[in-house]
Amino acid sequence: MEEPGQIKRALIDSTAGAISGGISRTVTSPLDVIKIRFQVQLEPTTQWALLRRDAYGPSKYTGMLQATKDIFREEGLAGFWRGNVPALLMVMPYTAIQFTVLHKFKTLASGSSKSEDHMNISPYLSYVSGALAGCAATVGSYPFDLLRTILASQGEPKVYPNMRSAFVHILKTRGFRGLYAGLTPTLVEIIPYAGMQFGTYDTFKRWTMAWNRYRLRDDDTISSFQLFLCGLAAGTSAKGVCHPLDVVKKRFQIEGLQRDPRYGARVQPRAYKNMYDGLRQIFHAEGWPGLYKGIVPSVIKAAPAGAVTFVAYEFTSDWLESNLT
Fold this sequence. Notes:
Mitochondrial transporter that mediates uptake of thiamine diphosphate (ThDP) into mitochondria. Belongs to the mitochondrial carrier (TC 2.A.29) family. The chain is mainly alpha-helical and 325 residues long. It has helices at 4-27, 29-39, 64-75, 84-110, 115-118, 123-153, 163-174, 183-216, 224-254, 275-291, 295-323. It has one domain: Mitochondrial carrier domain (Mitochondrial carrier fold, Alpha/alpha barrel). Helix content is 71%, strand content 0%. Helix 1 runs antiparallel to helix 4 and helix 1 packs antiparallel against helix 11. It starts with a helix and ends with a helix.
């Protein structure tokens, strides 16, 4: 049976995780929409890659600035928050589950529920805990991730007017399994991504505390700006390594989506047999640039997203811990 202290800790972690995830997701939504548009576009997305355009027709999006102008002109400011509702419904439980499970694993590893004691566990356990927490959070929130991708990528005119219509249509045409299309590459991606994100964050945090202790003599207090930099580094490194798997996931999620022809070639139903086949086909048809479509907005987004998430979590967690009786 759970002790009152453990229940309180779980409540703090889940609440702080949900709040930090919601803030981060809303702030970085425009970059996420641009990233998704690049990832689901079969045509080249950069000027230097247009040498391969003979395989497809003209490219709708060829750069971040051009994509930003086109989305704003065609869909208005609201276009940059397309799919934000299912994204919030996805990211808030995702981060709530992630931080709760992460804290539980660290408690088991350190033998203590205190956050300061968690810094004493092996760096390897930080990576493993982050990976397991990411897997648990992914399975629990995945359908909303799928709906977010579809609504963010459909453009104008809309294929689905709202989240409910997309949900009903997917159930009718693809069944319950359709809500988990692309789950395998997502789990394969999330293991190194979440592991690197949380493990690297803990590593940078340890280094910063050691530096502060050395510089300030026995004071290892970390400033909010230092926490921001730790989250920045963690988010950037994790996203850079795992991006190709994210591209494959997005292709699985939007297969069969009947977007307007001006957005380019469509991903046909069952275009990819599995994750490996998806990677192989993308590489064969689009080259290395195809596997890294959207990497620029992705990294630009991952850095502040990781930083905002960790800083918001630390502050919210500390506030709840000091105010909950």
